[in-house]
Specification:
The protein is an alpha+beta fold. Helix content is 45%, strand content 15%. The protein has 16 helices and 18 strands. A hairpin with a 4-residue loop joins strand 1 and strand 2. The longest helix is centred in the N-terminal third of the chain and has 77 residues. The radius of gyration is 40 Å and the shape is elongated. It starts with a strand and ends in an 18-residue tail after the last helix.
């Protein structure tokens, strides 16, 4: 029996979906993993734990057996240099003594007659009048000198005040930096070690945007171990359930965060093939997934080898197909025939480390005509990391728990993500508009026709990040926001009857990956759009190269 395994290798969690035809009828089944507590779950955490005995644990955490590693203390911050401030010398503020006026007394000799006495008094009054004029001049000069001394001292005080303010600003900045450092240091003292739980290796392996600690196990190696573990689980599952040999009956379609035709996408595709083939080789060394977890991880590193042959041919021989995640999400959406023919749609898959976007229409066969598939390296992790930068006192685990219960606290971080998402959506739409404007030259069409065709069209969301309503934004044109759910997928002959409603949004990509792809995935040039619109607008046939009716504005 031929089995197609859809392998959705996720940043936070992975999902597996199998399709098979026991009686000429396709059956779909999500692999249910046995968790550490004995429960079953279709979501398998993408993490690897290093144990105290140097063995590994995959998909779950046990803090009792988990090894720890020291965390280096926070680096003491470099303080801003003290401003070169020289205070001026304080001027002498001593005021001169105030001049005093002495009242002249008449000099009357003893025994003088009244005439002499009167003369003496007259002389005294004339002298006083003369002295008053001199005193006023002296007092005025004294007041002026005092005013000068006071103004000079006040000027000195103002200069010192400005310099002191500059110094206080520097001191305030220094105090803030020191206080932040002391807080970080106090936190480090309480958490000077951390458990060796390795996450986000998928994101590090397939993007250039994430820094990976070079002292740690390489992200590629961890990805190979994790995929090997998943393949061994499927191998045992297929043997016990169908009595089939994995190597003979199972083909694997794995999603990667990429577009379709550009050089970066081809590099990511090759990287996916290389890692998956290496996992296939490592799988041959073990009979069961548990055997991997009995060896020291140093031995596993030695056992993990990349193929020395033609990776592309090896992948083909093993039945390994690498598919853009956005296309897989698109497959899950269009396979149910729930979208109307001819209309333009956007699909947005918000994952942990990336967001994948597909721009497509539905042709006469109700299959997708893909115009653009792209991926940018921001997802739910971007929201969490943005929040952690603003709240350095909490851990990633605490932030994840808070996101599930108090999403309103992440409004700023979500806004930062949606800004990036809008940029990517605008880039796609601007390209379509640009091509359209080039093609309508010499025709009876106008750009308004394209706007009319896009206005109010659906933008469909899936992926773990899309379960948060604030992450699902509308576009100016594509304003009809939809979320992939159970009814949208409409999975035929699904074996898993107990899935929670939220699971369907997260499992859409895995389901799409389980639908066999027999032909090379190609994009349809955006130039085809104008021909469709022209046909609907009644433009002369000689102006139309292709008369296929997509019904862009008929719905």
């Amino acid at each position: 029996m031929d089995i197609t395994l859809g392998l959705d290798f996720g940043t936070h969690q992975s999902k597996l979906c199998m399709s098979y035809m026991p009686n000429n009828e396709t059956i779909y089944e999500f692999v249910e993993f046995t968790m550490a507590n004995g429960s079953k779950n279709v979501l398998f955490p993408s993490l690897i734990q290093i144990n105290k005995d140097n063995t590994i644990r995959i998909g779950s955490v046990d803090y009792d057996t988990c090894a720890s590693k020291p965390i280096p203390p926070p680096e003491k911050p470099e303080l801003p240099p003290r401003p070169e401030i020289v205070f001026p010398e304080e001027p002498d503020s001593t005021l001169p003594p105030e001049p005093k006026r002495e009242e002249p007394k008449p000099q009357i000799e003893d025994g003088a007659d009244w005439q002499n006495a009167l003369k003496a008094i007259k002389n005294s009054m004339e002298s006083q009048k003369k002295d008053n004029g001199n005193f006023k001049q002296l007092h005025k000069a004294w007041v002026k000198k005092c005013q000068f001394i006071r103004e000079r001292h006040k000027e000195w005080e103002n200069k010192c005040r400005v310099l002191n303010y500059q110094l206080s600003l520097w001191q305030k900045k220094v105090d803030e930096i020191n206080a932040e450092y002391e807080e970080e240091y106090a936190y480090w003292q309480q958490h000077c070690t951390e458990p060796r739980i390795l996450r986000y290796f998928k994101q590090a392996a397939f993007t250039h945007t994430m820094q990976w600690d070079k002292d740690e196990i390489p992200a590629d190696t961890l990805s190979i171990w994790y995929l090997t573990y998943l393949l061994l689980i499927v191998k045992r599952y297929v043997k016990e359930r169908f009595n089939e040999v994995f190597e003979e009956s199972v083909s694997v379609q794995m999603g990667v965060p990429s577009g379709l035709d550009d050089g970066a996408s081809r590099w990511i595709k090759y990287r996916g093939q290389r890692i998956l083939v290496a996992a296939r080789h490592l799988m041959e060394l073990f009979g069961a997934p548990e055997e991997m977890c009995t060896l020291p991880y140093q031995d596993l590193i030695e056992m993990t080898k990349y193929s020395e042959g033609d990776v592309i041919n090896e992948a083909e021989e093993y039945g390994f197909v690498i598919i853009p995640e956005a296309y897989a999400g698109l497959q899950s959406l269009t396979y149910s025939r729930r979208l109307s023919r001819g209309n333009m749609h956007l699909l947005v898959d918000i994952g942990g480390g990336t967001t994948d976007i597909a721009f497509f229409t539905i042709d006469e066969s109700l299959m997708p005509s893909i115009h653009t598939v792209t991926s940018f390296h921001k997802g739910l992790n971007y929201v969490l990391e943005h929040y952690l930068r603003e709240h350095p006192g909490i851990s990633m685990g605490e932030a994840q728990a808070l996101l599930r219960t108090r999403i309103e606290k992440f409004s700023g971080s979500i806004a930062a993500y949606t800004t990036e998402l809008r940029k990517e959506l605008n880039t796609i739409i601007d390209h379509v508009v640009h091509v359209f404007n080039q093609e309508i030259v010499g025709t009876e069409l106008s750009a308004a026709r394209l706007v009319e065709a896009m206005m109010g069209r659906p933008i469909v969301y899936c992926g773990g990040g899309s379960v948060f309503p604030n992450m699902r934004i509308a576009h100016h044109y594509f304003s009809d926001r939809r979320l992939i759910n159970k009814d949208t997928l409409n999975i035929p002959n699904l074996q898993n009857r107990g899935l929670e409603p939220v699971h369907y949004t997260i499992l859409a990509t895995a389901y799409g990956l389980s639908i066999p792809v027999y032909e090379e995935i190609k994009t349809m040039d955006a130039r085809q759009l104008w021909k469709t619109i022209a046909n609907n607008a009644g433009v002369r046939p000689d102006l139309i190269c292709d008369k296929r009716d997509y019904g862009l504005i008929d719905d």
